[in-house]
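Q: Sequence in, structure out?
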Amino acid sequence: MITRRIQGLYSLHFTIQALLVVLTYWAYASLVIDFYTVRWFGHYVLYCSLIILGLVVHDFRSDHDYHLGVLHHGSPEACHRLALGKVLFATFFISVYLLATRDTVISRLFLFSFLPLMYVVLFVSDWWLPKSIARRIFKGVYRQRTLLVGSLFRAAGFTAWLQHKEVLGIDCIGVVTDEKETEELLQRYKSDLHRKLRHGNTLPILGGTQDLERVIREQDITHVILLEYPIFSEQITQIVYVCDKLGVRLLMVDNLEEKLLHPITYFEDDGIRFFCMRDEPLQSPANRLIKRAIDVIISLPVVLFVLPVAAAVIWLFQRIYSSGPVLYWQSRAGLENVEFKVLKFRTMHIDNPDIALQATARDKRIFPGGRFFRKHSLDELPQFWNVLRGEMSVVGPRPHLIEHNERFAKVMNSYYIRAFVKPGITGMAQIKGYRGETTKDEDLMHRIQWDLYYIENWSLELELRIIFKTSQVVLFPHETAF
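A: Exactly. Output:
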């Protein structure tokens, strides 16, 4: 019901605003232009259509709910940004057409002097029109006398939402709750409401859920909002029964995220509705293909041209400071925790008794030249061979030793979620400075949180941004690098 009201109000606002722009266009044209021929008139019709096209395209790319919220409760700055965006879209279509056709009939002075006037019309209508429309259409029987059902704590936290929806005809009458009304609880509830409600009144407590039918009848309630899923299935069944029986709209707040302590994602497949704990853009084959193309484009030149030169330089340092093999293989956990061998340049002495021991800033196992290579991540260059083989990606969570995985998983329960994607040479955690030795559990948790952010929010833009930022970090390493 609320979504339909929002969408309908936005559509009315857009339609009236577009009509105001058209009327302003032709009123201004009649003042400054003399129409001598039909041909001239047709040109001005065309440019008016281009302006409306700009408004329509801006409308399609906009989030209606967000912009309607801004228009109802936003500042002049917010309305300025909206109006300016619409003018810029209209200007774009006009300019493209002018450049493409080199039209010599239309008056450039008229067109580009109209745009500031159009901005004024849009700004004023964005600021004033939605509230004015809402006051006229959501009145009388279209106002919803609303009852909240749930805890007093959740009711107090719901007042900001109620304020925002008053313009849509949502009038909150009171609260029905099964909580024990202790003096301390009531005082806290009233204090929270006084702080949040502009009119300074509290919402009265009208009874318990067993009184729901009586309260609905006595208060002429037309809309019930259930603030959380009831613990007992019998309770929700009774609430639905009463609302249906009395012809009252029922809205339920989805508080699954609070109960699960984790964001959730909803989707539907073959008529069955699901929710899952996270969105995964890289489950799309198209996105994986794009990511793989980036991996090959970057790793192939590195393997062919950069890696041989780097190997020669590091081999020379090793001959001076620490003789032994240039490269070494190490077991790491990859995609879906499948073990694979990662390739690295050796930066430690070969007499290393404990390879699972994390390197530290003053680690004596690292030979002098190796410290420089590690700081600038040059020891990771051979991993581009792993990328080319498809075992790793340029961007992704860093692969850790198997022994470290087991230890880190005890620090953060969601650690193994990192294995949903291929491990990477660089990632969100690395460009944020969380690299090197993890001496504190807090640092490890930050690292994992950024890895999970990458998995849940992958995009081509994010991928390229991480790669670009990594190139800066290689040249100017974080203090945590060694």
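The first strand starts at residue 144 and ends at 149.
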